[in-house]
Design a protein that fits this description.
Elements: H1 2-6, H2 12-26, H3 29-34, H4 40-50, E1 52-53, E2 75-78, E3 83-88, E4 95-97, E5 110-112, E6 117-119, H5 126-129, E7 135-137, E8 144-146, E9 160-162, E10 167-170, E11 184-186, E12 191-195, E13 208-210, E14 215-219, E15 232-234, E16 239-241, E17 256-258, E18 265-266, E19 280-282, E20 287-288, E21 304-306, E22 328-330, E23 337-338, E24 352-354, E25 359-360, E26 376-378, E27 400-402, E28 424-426, E29 433-434, E30 448-450, E31 455-459, E32 479-481, H6 489-493, E33 497-500, H7 502-505, E34 520-523, H8 524-533, E35 581-584, E36 589-591, H9 596-599, E37 605-609, E38 612-618, E39 624-630, H10 639-650, E40 660-665, E41 670-675, H11 682-687, H12 698-717, E42 730-732, E43 738-740, H13 754-761, H14 782-797, E44 802-804, E45 809-811, H15 812-821, H16 839-852, H17 863-884
Parallel strand pairs: 3-5, 4-6, 5-7, 7-9, 8-10, 9-11, 10-12, 11-13, 12-14, 13-15, 14-16, 15-17, 17-19, 18-20, 19-21, 21-22, 22-24, 23-25, 24-26, 26-27, 27-28, 28-30, 29-31, 31-32
Antiparallel strand pairs: 1-4, 2-3, 33-34, 35-36, 35-40, 37-38, 38-39, 39-41, 40-41, 42-43, 44-45
The chain binds 2-acetamido-2-deoxy-beta-D-glucopyranose (3 copies).
Keywords: ATP-binding, Glycoprotein, Leucine-rich repeat, Membrane, Nucleotide-binding, Receptor, Repeat, Signal, Transmembrane, Transmembrane helix
Protein name: Protein kinase domain-containing protein
Domain Protein kinase: 600-873
């Protein structure tokens, strides 16, 4: 073999390797050791090198011409024996196998090959042959296969062993427990599986054990308390179940404990109280429960305390202020309630405070000012009320502030502009009011400042971040103005009032009012804006009732003019049947001249429908109210009946029903006064082109559906059938709360038959329950459930109940039903929601919509059941999200 090779043209190095191999393979040990330059160490290293890729030429100094390898890069020798004792090649970008040749280095004590690209298996003879090895670090390579059981047959010298960050699989060998000198063991970030055996706790010298980020499972075995010297225990990111070891507190020197991201249950063991040296306690993402121990404040060396994403309940113990060294406190996503303890002012080193996603109430304590090192403050998704404390400005290092989804009120303190390092702030979904402080423009690092869904008003600041702000930072603040929100500040803030004086403008109809200064201030610009923007709204009108100045002089005119108490309620203007009576249900009575007809002139009209025409007027105090002029008087009941029915409807109050505030009656026409909603109807929100830019989020849609269900359930409980549920009859207030309008009006009209109901009132295409077509079937409240089902599909899909395509008609309900059958129901969800909805909610929601829209009335659930179902859908999907986190 040899002679054959020598015939080929070989380099010097090749020859050397071949010669070496020849010696290794065929010569007895004595021969080689006597031959000095080719001592075993050199031989082993050269052969080792020959099997490697060395792209950075890091091993160029490894030259066979040297008489000894002791000066080679990464090699150290013991001066007394001149044998290689240490081989440290960390980060040399070497790749290849860790071959047998290294086993020639009989006197090796330290072998560190970390941060290379070694592949293949770990040789099971490594430690047996190199029985002097004290340190073995093969971390951050690409080693694979199992850790061989035989590896630890002879490992008594071993102090440090790390195979971290490789691709090792299989179980942790039981034989490991014989390496009783081990002080540090790190197998983290591999794919090790199986259970942890209790032999691990025989390693009495162990100071640091890191098995995190593997696939280990089962319970953590008893006995960890035997490791008196243990300082660091990391078992995080595995699949451990059961409890945290009860006696872990016996390891009194423990400084770092990481059990995070496992499946651990039960409470935090009492014994941890003794671990006063502890600096890190990470129990995040488990199923731990019970309260946060009151003694936690005694672990006064803690720097990081992370109990997030568990099931802890109870309140935050005030002793937490004792953690003077605390840098990170994360209690987010638990069931913690109560208020934030004022003792946080003691936490001078704290730079991350995350209490988000709990049920915390109370207000943000002004003692927050003590936490002067804070970089990140996360309190979102709680029930915090009160104001944002001005003192927050003292946390001058703050970079990130999240207070979203709380009930904060008051204005945004100008002092926030003192937080010069602020980069990110989310104040969305609160009840903040007032204007945005102009000084915010001084925050030069600001890249996100979200105040969506509050009650802010006035002009958006100009300058700094606000020059590049997009509408999605300020959504849901209808009173904010500025070019970004497409809302000119002049129009909304200083409506140009005009005085409608009946004396001059409406002189053709004489009334007793002529001698009184009766001024009605209306804003024409508002009329035009609203009139143009609102499409077919059936349900709500606004009227101005302004009479206040003339009340005193009413009596001499001979009419019961002005406001009065209860007695005047029954008065009817018999002297002039044309002159009607305006009644506010809160007790005030206002007479109206015939000019009411002029007030309800076309410019104010905002909609038309089965029950009549809808108008809108502004009151002098700039409030809007809405008025509906009922259809044909011939259908109308007597005044008495009418008033009785209206009073009844006025008593129906629910947060999801439009409030009826008053009425007007005369023999020729009748009016009903309602509260007015500036955002308009659900129909407008879903289908109006102008609204396209505005995000109608999944959360908001869910809220709207649930609200409609609650409103309807309440109506049905009061024995009122709506008959005419559709998206133009549902209004959305600024908090996304839906308000059902136009209910109960059927009772104001005399005898109606199915014919009238279906042709005049139930006119809305697509919402009409099939039983309306069948004269023999009794119409029950189940016709509303049908309409509700269609509404659900409309809200989820963003499509009209019936859409006319070029040469096709698409009936929403049929389309969704067949998508469900084809298992493609997700395609029905509004494309604007793609990526932003929760399928755990959306799919059951669609199914619910279809059940409600069943052809047979008896197959449709009651609205009360629907409310329960919706709440269950919401809960279970929230539960799932919790588990995912
Ligand atoms: C390691 O080696 C593999 C296979 O040879 C190669 O794909 C990979 O890029 C290498 N990684 C590094 C960090 O050198
Ligand atoms: C904010 O800064 C201004 C001027 O720099 C200072 O007068 C004011 O006291 C500061 N406010 C707070 C709460 O620190
Ligand atoms: C602001 O917050 C709202 C509500 O949470 C959210 O919908 C919107 O996307 C946020 N905007 C930005 C730019 O992050």
């Amino acid at each position: 073999m040899l002679s054959y090779i020598i015939h080929i043209n070989l380099t010097m190095q090749d020859k050397f390797i071949i010669f070496s191999l020849f010696l290794v393979l065929f010569c007895p040990f004595q021969v080689i050791s006597l031959y000095q330059p080719f001592n075993e160490d050199m031989l082993g290293l050269i052969v080792f090198k020959s099997g490697l890729e060395d792209p950075k030429n890091k091993l160029s100094s490894w030259n066979e011409d040297d008489y000894s390898p002791c000066n080679w890069e990464g090699v150290k020798c013991d001066p007394s024996t001149n044998r290689v004792s240490s081989l440290v090649l960390d980060g040399f970008s070497l790749s290849g196998h860790i071959g047998k040749s290294l086993m020639k280095l009989q006197f090796l004590q330290i072998l560190s090959l970390s941060r290379n690209n070694f592949t293949g298996k770990i040789n099971h003879d490594l430690l047996v042959t190199l029985w002097n090895l004290k340190v073995v670090d093969l971390s951050e390579n690409s080693l694979s296969g199992a850790i061989p059981d035989e590896l630890f047959r002879q490992c008594w010298s071993l102090r440090v062993l790390s195979f971290a960050k490789n691709n090792l699989s299989g179980k942790i060998p039981e034989s490991l427990s014989s390496c009783y000198s081990l002080a540090s063991l790190n197998f983290s970030s591999n794919q090790l599986n199986g259970e942890l055996h209790s032999g691990m706790w025989f390693l009495k010298e162990l100071q640091s054990l890191d098995l995190s980020n593997n696939f280990l499972k089962g319970e953590i075995p008893e006995g960890v308390q035997n490791l008196y010297d243990l300082r660091e225990l990391r078992l995080g990111r595995n699949f451990f179940t059961g409890r945290i070891p009860e006696n872990i507190g016996n390891c009194l020197l423990l400084k770092m404990i990481d059990f995070g991201d496992n499946l651990l249950t039960d409470e935090i063991p009492e014994s941890i109280q003794r671990l006063t040296s502890c600096t890190l306690l990470n129990l995040q993402v488990n199923f731990l429960n019970g309260s946060i121990p009151h003694w936690i404040g005694e672990l006064n060396n803690l720097e990081i305390l992370d109990l997030s994403s568990n099931r802890f309940s109870g309140s935050i113990p005030s002793g937490i202020g004792g953690l003077r060294s605390l840098q990170v406190l994360n209690l987010s996503t638990n069931n913690i309630f109560g208020s934030i303890p004022v003792s946080i002012k003691e936490l001078k080193s704290l730079y991350v405070l995350d209490l988000s996603d709990n049920k915390l109430n109370g207000s943000i304590p002004l003692e927050i000012e003590g936490a002067i090192s804070l970089l990140e403050l996360k309190l979102q998704r709680n029930l915090l009320g009160g104001r944002i404390p001005v003192q927050i400005a003292k946390c001058s290092a703050l970079k990130s502030l999240n207070l979203a989804h709380n009930n904060l009120i008051g204005s945004i303190p100008t002092s926030i502009a003192n937080l010069t390092n602020l980069q990110y702030a989310d104040l969305s979904w609160n009840k903040l009011s007032g204007t945005l402080p102009k000084k915010l423009t001084n925050l030069t690092h600001l890249s996100s400042f979200n105040v969506s869904y509050n009650h802010l008003q006035g002009e958006l600041p100009i300058g700094g971040f606000f020059n590049t702000i997009t509408p999605s930072f300020v959504h849901g603040n209808p009173l904010l103005c500025g070019s970004v929100v497409n809302h000119s500040c002049d129009r909304s803030y200083h409506p140009k009032p005009i005085v409608l004086n009946p004396n001059s403008n409406y002189s053709n109809s004489r009334t007793s009012l002529q001698n009184h200064h009766h001024k009605i201030m209306l804003s024409i610009s508002v009329f035009i804006a609203i009139g143009a923007a609102v499409s077919i709204v059936v349900g709500v009108v606004a009227v101005t009732i302004l009479n206040i100045h003339v009340r005193a002089s009413v009596s001499h005119s001979g009419y019961p003019f002005g406001l009065s108490g209860g007695e005047d309620n029954s008065f009817s203007p018999e002297k002039d049947p044309k002159c009607g009576k305006f009644v506010m249900l809160n007790g005030d009575i206002v007479e109206f001249p015939n000019e009411v007809n002029n007030l309800l002139k076309e410019g104010n009209e905002i909609g038309r429908g089965g029950f009549g025409v809808v108008y809108c007027v502004v009151l002098r105090d700039q409030n809007f109210i809405a008025i509906k002029k009922l259809i044909g008087s011939s259908l109308t009941k007597s005044q008495e009946d009418f008033e009785r029915e209206v009073q009844k409807l006025g008593n129906i109050k629910h947060q999801n029903l439009v409030a009826l505030e008053g009425y007007y009656w005369n023999s020729s026409f009748q009016l009903i006064i309602y509260e007015y909603f500036s955002r308009g109807s659900l129909h407008k929100l879903l289908h109006d082109d102008d609204q396209r830019k505005i995000v109608f989020s999944w959360r908001a849609r869910f809220k709207v559906i649930l609200g409609i269900a609650k409103g309807l359930a309440y109506l049905h409980q009061m024995n009122i059938i709506h008959y005419n549920l559709k998206s133009t009859n549902v209004f959305i207030d600024t908090r996304d709360e839906p308000k059902i309008g136009d209910f109960g009006l059927v009772n104001l009209l005399p005898i109606l038959d199915h014919c009238v109901l279906s042709s005049k009132i139930q006119s809305a295409l697509g919402y009409t329950a099939p039983e309306f077509a069948c004269r023999t079937v009794n119409i029950t409240e189940k016709c509303d459930v049908y309409g509700f089902g269609i509404l659900v599909l409309e809200i989820v899909s963003g499509k009209r109940p019936v859409e006319y395509m070029e040469d096709d008609v698409v009936v929403l309900c049929d389309m969704v039903r067949s998508s469900l059958e084809d298992e493609k129901v997700e395609q029905c969800i509004d494309e604007k929601l793609v990526g932003y909805f929760s399928p755990e909610e959306a799919i059951p929601m669609i199914k619910l919509g279809l059940v409600c829209a069943s052809q047979v009335p008896s197959s449709r659930p009651d609205m009360a059941d629907v409310v329960n179902i919706l709440e269950t859908i919401q809960c279970s999907s929230e539960g799932q999200q919790e588990e995912i986190q």
